[in-house]
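Progress note, project year one: complex with HDD.
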Amino acid sequence: MSEENKRNVNSKNEQLEQFRSDDRDKHLTTNQGLKVSEDEFSLKAGERGPTLMEDFHFREKMTHFDHERIPERIVHARGYGAHGEFELYESMKEYTKAKFLQEPGSKVPVFVRMSTVAGSKGSADIPRDVRGFATKFYTEEGNFDLVGNNMPVFFIQDAIKFPDFVHAVKPEPDTGYPQAASAHDTFWDFIANNQESAHMVMWLMSDRAIPRNLRMMEGFGVHTFRLVNEEGKSHFVKFHWKPELGVHSTVWDEAQKINGKNPDFNRQDLHETIENGDYPSWKLGVQVIPEEDEFKFDFDILDPTKLWPEEEVPVKVVGRMTLNRNVDNVFAETEQVAFHPGSVVPGIDFSNDPLLQGRLFSYTDTQLIRLGGPNFHELPINRPVSPFHNNQRDGYGRQTINVGKTSYHNNSIASNTPSVATEAEGGYAHYQEKVDGRKIQARSESFKDHFSQATLFYNSMTDVEKTHIKEAFSFELGMVNDKSIRQQVVNMITNINLELSQEVAANIGVQVPTEGGSNVTKSSPALSQANTVNKPDTMKIGVLLDDGFTGEAVQKVLDGLKENKTYPTVISSKLGKIHGDDGTEIEAVGTFDTGHPVLFDAVYVAGGAETDANFQKQAGYFVTEMFNHYKPIGATGEGIAILHEAGITDVAGVVTGEDVEQFLSAYVDAVSQHRHWNRNV
Ligand code: HDD
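Model obtained:
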């Protein structure tokens, strides 16, 4: 890595360091730097008298507190972020002149914020929803923001409809509910009456909308962007983040329970895995289409409701992102970070996707109200690592002290500086696309096929995934009061797949369609989660343990689980030491009260010879929940009887045995599979 690059990677951390404040071991002061001698009692006229206005410390403390909140994001209000780095594997020189995409091995710092879309800041982590996946690359040429989602398409084709869409999904205005849910009348009324949403709704009803955690989601730039190389040649591009631990989801019953048992489940998971040094990582992939091939596809590549099937346009992996540092302060960093799809660097440009074009306006506008003025780029988290120099001045919260007399261009006093840079000097030059058209307000004919890719998506699912989609539609529409809306949606999904609409219709009490359907037979295996990566790493295992357990064997299993990078957590009826048959002591760090089965990916039941009826009952419930959510189950020693008592025998993903080595190997294998769908429940 070049010296300059090293400096760049470090410089974001160094820059942030200047703003960090460690208040420990310091005297309490006012914001004017005055040491404070009393912070318990306000200044009063006599012990029982009225508080006096002249207590400046009281006034300052209270005023600041009264102004602590800023408006939450209009969408993506609930999110969680972390710092990391992006390393380039393969030079993208052929396609782009962006400096951070030239030299294999070069690194840049990044900040990532992942979010749900519909819910308020305090809502739960796993509603059925799209997830935001926004990445800020702090490059030597300025910040590049890839403001994407965990789904590759969107609900609408033109940004002018975004406020309508968001109004429809948010809590209904007359009642103020439901919070963070699309299962209500206005959302589905919007869908049925804006049929361009068909493809995205299939993603929303799929397992992608209830991810197991933020580390096991794909990310997509969604829009078609442009890459421009040194020679000025342009290619269309789509960006992908591929999680190295694979794409994994919860099941709906489980997701709903997690939201109650631990509404912070996803954010806590991200925080803890980073603290443990198990850094989440993604490969950066690109799909590239030469400009001259723009019209070679059976969809319009500018349409954000369409993906480019990976089998037609392969994803080329070019780099890797690792999140390796938690924030110091959630407000200062995660809440104040300001993303913008229009933050690009030379070599990256826009396409005419009408959704993207509208986004280019919306983000700065929203930051102005949310962050209280035009100087949010000066907040530590938003500052580029390349310094900024321009003639913008003043405004709320201005921090830079610009020196000199001039704040205008052209000038002679400062020799006409700051001066513009030529392209050779790194100045950004917009791609000179030739545009020629009438001013019209219309949808292009090429944007009017709303159903073929929705069917492509459905065709690409396994039977289990299809069942989940049917169940999701049935749940969501089952929550819709207006029967006409339910019928309209069923009629709409008939265009995607007749059998799907028939089953849903039968479940939600509306007329079952008898004709219609799609003749699209194409599928794209890359869209199914069944084809993802499976690893045991960071899988959370609930270990059910009671007094009298077989000491040596259980200890060996626990050691083996840790060696395989899983996270075993010992759970019992109460916290504290549990005693094995040979004097081994293992600490229970969770109880059946605090450690609900939905919070774990797998269970290992060790039991114990001295176990009582209460333990048996609780453990029985635990394993039954795990079983119903298709999770891996293992048992040794007395644990095997607990499984049998709960009616769980040797079906897929259930591993029992006395030989520790054999058990461990089969169990770790079962754990790495995540879910075992072929159980008859
Ligand atoms: Fe957006 C936030 C992603 C369409 C307007 N959007 C926001 C965030 C993400 C996305 C990840 C959260 C950023 C953060 O963590 O701070 N948005 C998308 C994607 C879209 C999309 C992938 C479609 C492909 N968005 C979209 C449209 C508009 C907006 C069409 C308006 C024209 N989005 C906003 C916003 C937000 C926002 C209102 C709220 C907070 C913010 O910008 O900073 O401006």
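The radius of gyration is 28 Å.
Residues 73-76, 79, 113, 115, 132, 134, 147-149, 154, 159, 162, 222-223, 304, 337, 339, 355, 358-359, 362-363, 366-367 surround HDD (CB under 6 Å).
No further modelling is planned for this target in the current period.
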